Amino acid sequence: MYTSKISGLGYYVPENVVTNDDLSKVMDTNDAWIQERTGIKERRHIKKGDGNSTSIMGVKAAEIALERANLTTDDIDFIVFATLSPDMYFPGGGVRVQDMMNMSTVPALDVRNQCSGFVYAISVADQFVKTGMYKNVLVIGSENHSGGLDMTTRGRGVSVIFGDGAGAAVVTRSEEKGSGILSTHLHSEGAHAKELSLEGPSTEHWVPEIIAENPQEDIPYYPYMNGQFVFKNAVVRFSEVINEGLQANNLSAADIDMLIPHQANLRISQFVQKQFQLSDDQVYNNIQKYGNTTAASIPIALTEAWEAGKIKKGDLVVLAAFGSGFTWGSAIIRW
Ligand SMILES: CC(C)(COP(=O)(O)OP(=O)(O)OC[C@H]1O[C@@H](n2cnc3c(N)ncnc32)[C@H](O)[C@@H]1OP(=O)(O)O)[C@@H](O)C(=O)NCCC(=O)NCCS
């Protein structure tokens, strides 16, 4: 068995900044409500004509990660692409990235686990690298939320939270024992699938059916979120899965150098921080700038924290996520 490590990180966010005040011009909301409930001050939205898409942003993040790993596309054996907002209904973003980056016929896998997508994708990469099947796996999380949000007052409970962006990591084979990705822990609970979901278009809600049922509305095309139910489940599952990861490695909260929680809501991150008695320096949050970028949030935050010198060799880094499905997971990494 090999070990696996993260050898390169990168992220990309669109230039277009959308502040809370900007949102209050198109829907009945305000800066105070959004900041108080979520901590978000602004987010990035793709602008029509700026050339971005979920896959294109993924490529931009991936190029940076590859360069930092001192690798080229020829070195990549496998692409794992996590998103809930693919360019097309099918095929997924992985094959589009493979094409745009002029890669050989390497396999490309799409992960559909929403806010937990990146942790699931890292776990997939980790298993393939540890078993020796692949040497370098390109893991991408990318989201174009803005294209699919209800930007009217009707959608304000959801739309103010989400933003666009992409992050990428290269997972590479290593032989250094006791370092790199130590373990990953994944869970799901489909009983709550509808509590945070987008139902149509899908095989249960084909377009003609949606139009027939909602002649004047387009609700099934927009995400639905039972905010308070999601919040209550998130704080419990975040804590459980971080504890599970720590225990699996005979570690405790006192060993954590950096926790990178999925940027769901600053209040959720703060709740988790308090539970594990971590200082502000031990938790990295950037939801204030980017909103919730779902599968992209952890790789963007991880990259920023690493760029800022907040993650050093030997540090214990914990990634944790919770989201639609419900799905949740953690990754315990000795940097
Ligand atoms: C979404 C969330 C911020 C809403 O906060 P909340 O305190 O639960 O607020 P509620 O949904 O109960 O709404 C309270 C009021 O604010 C209103 N409201 C909702 N969105 C609003 C907005 N953007 N601006 C202003 N008012 C808003 C509601 O209509 C409601 O008004 P009412 O009391 O007159 O009916 C919160 O539930 C949350 O963060 N949940 C977790 C979401 C999450 O993390 N999702 C990602 C998971 S990966």
TrEMBL record:
Q: What class of enzyme is it?
A: transferase
Q: What is its EC number?
A: 2.3.1.180
Region annotation ACP-binding: where it falls in the sequence: 263-267
List, in alphabetical order, the Gene Ontology terms for molecular function in this entry: 3-oxoacyl-[acyl-carrier-protein] synthase activity; beta-ketoacyl-acyl-carrier-protein synthase III activity
- Gene3D superfamilies on file: 3.40.47.10
Residue ranges annotated for the Beta-ketoacyl-[acyl-carrier-protein] synthase III C-terminal domain, each copy included: 246-335
Q: What InterPro entries is this protein classified in? A: ACP_syn_III_C (IPR013747), ACP_syn_III_N (IPR013751), FabH (IPR004655), Thiolase-like (IPR016039)
Which SUPFAM superfamilies does the record associate with it?
Thiolase-like
Q: Which UniProt keywords apply?
A: Acyltransferase, Cytoplasm, Fatty acid biosynthesis, Fatty acid metabolism, Lipid biosynthesis, Lipid metabolism, Multifunctional enzyme, Transferase
Q: Name one GO biological process term.
A: secondary metabolite biosynthetic process
Which top-level group of life is the source organism from? Bacteria
Q: Name one Pfam family in it.
A: ACP_syn_III
Can you state which reaction this protein catalyses?
Answer: malonyl-[ACP] + acetyl-CoA + H(+) = 3-oxobutanoyl-[ACP] + CO2 + CoA
Instruction: Name a GO CC annotation attached to this entry.
Output: cytoplasm
Q: Please list the residues that make up the active site.
A: C115, H262, N292
Residues forming the Beta-ketoacyl-[acyl-carrier-protein] synthase III N-terminal domain are 109-190
What CDD domains does UniProt report for this protein, alphabetically?
KAS_III
**Subcellular location as annotated:** Cytoplasm
Q: In which pathway does it act?
A: Lipid metabolism; fatty acid biosynthesis
Subunit notes for this chain?
Homodimer.
Task: Describe the function of this protein.
Answer: Catalyzes the condensation reaction of fatty acid synthesis by the addition to an acyl acceptor of two carbons from malonyl-ACP. Catalyzes the first condensation reaction which initiates fatty acid synthesis and may therefore play a role in governing the total rate of fatty acid production. Possesses both acetoacetyl-ACP synthase and acetyl transacylase activities. Its substrate specificity determines the biosynthesis of branched-chain and/or straight-chain of fatty acids.
Q: Which PANTHER family match?
A: 3-OXOACYL-[ACYL-CARRIER-PROTEIN] SYNTHASE 3, BETA-KETOACYL-[ACYL-CARRIER-PROTEIN] SYNTHASE III
Family the entry assigns: Belongs to the thiolase-like superfamily. FabH family.
Annotated domain remarks: The last Arg residue of the ACP-binding site is essential for the weak association between ACP/AcpP and FabH.
Q: Kindly provide the name given to this protein in its UniProt entry.
A: Beta-ketoacyl-[acyl-carrier-protein] synthase III
Origin species, per record, is Aquimarina mytili
What's the name of its gene? fabH
